[in-house]
Design goal:
alpha+beta; 5 helices; four-stranded antiparallel β-sheet
């Protein structure tokens, strides 16, 4: 039975580990890729019950934050999105990481921001799904709403994950993705900032997570499966405290 994986090469882009119940240790390369190629990083550990998450995953996530900031710096605040700026990871755990600035139980979270430009609208997004038994796949999606005091602006991030969810008898799993996109183009962003400055009120952002399936015959509310959600904004203030 597979119990450990030796150091994974920094060039690795896709890794899916499924039902390795004896796997305990995974060693990631200390050289986190810069994502300069037209590829993405997609790492998934499904139902790896004995995986040492604290020592194998958490320190890697710290480097993931740095990697996300690198992606942001390349965008230069101009809304330019490279195809390579994609990042997804799934692992066994029951909570959103504590370093997420905004986290809560349930499917949505709301918080104030100083201005859309200071926030940048890029972030790490996270949800926790519980163990359960389904015979169909679920898509994990996210929508964002910005309230400027007068109007409500809506933006959909589309599919964050397309995965078969762990079956009953296993553990909760964390799904984390790097949201690389901006909600508004530069012109709309300038207009919105001017409107907010004149109103004197800080805008509110709401992130709403939900799941959907292709099984139209399903009678249950799949959104009840989301236990927790979290948002980690990639802005200058967060970068300074890294």
């Amino acid at each position: 039975m597979l119990q450990y994986l030796p150091e994974l090469p920094s060039s690795i882009r896709h890794l899916t580990v499924l039902d390795c119940i004896m796997l305990q240790t995974v060693t990631f390369s200390s050289n986190i890729p810069r994502l300069q190629e037209e590829k993405c990083i997609n790492i998934s550990f499904h139902n790896c019950m004995k995986l040492d998450v604290a020592n194998c995953i958490y320190w890697y996530l710290k480097d993931i934050r740095k990697l996300a900031y690198v992606c942001e710096s390349r965008r230069g605040g101009k809304g330019v999105v490279r195809r390579s700026d994609f990042l997804k990871i799934c692992y066994l755990d029951y909570r959103v990481p504590e370093w997420f600035m905004h986290r809560t139980k349930g499917t949505s979270i709301t918080f104030e921001v100083f201005s859309p430009s200071s926030y940048g609208f890029s972030s790490l997004l996270c949800v926790v799904l519980p163990k359960y038994s389904l015979d169909y796949e679920l898509d994990i999606k996210c929508r964002c709403y910005l309230e400027d005091g007068i109007n409500m602006h809506k933006y959909s991030f589309g599919i964050l994950f397309l995965n078969h969810i762990p079956a009953e008898g296993c553990s909760d799993h964390v799904y984390m993705a790097y949201n690389y996109g901006g909600i508004f183009d530069v012109i709309k962003l300038d207009r919105l900032n001017n409107k907010i400055a004149s109103s004197g009120k800080n805008p509110k952002l709401t992130f709403e997570f939900f799941v959907s399936s292709g099984d139209t015959g399903s009678k249950q509310d799949d959104n009840l499966l989301i236990k927790e959600c979290g948002v980690y904004p990639l802005n200058d203030s967060n970068f300074r405290i890294e």
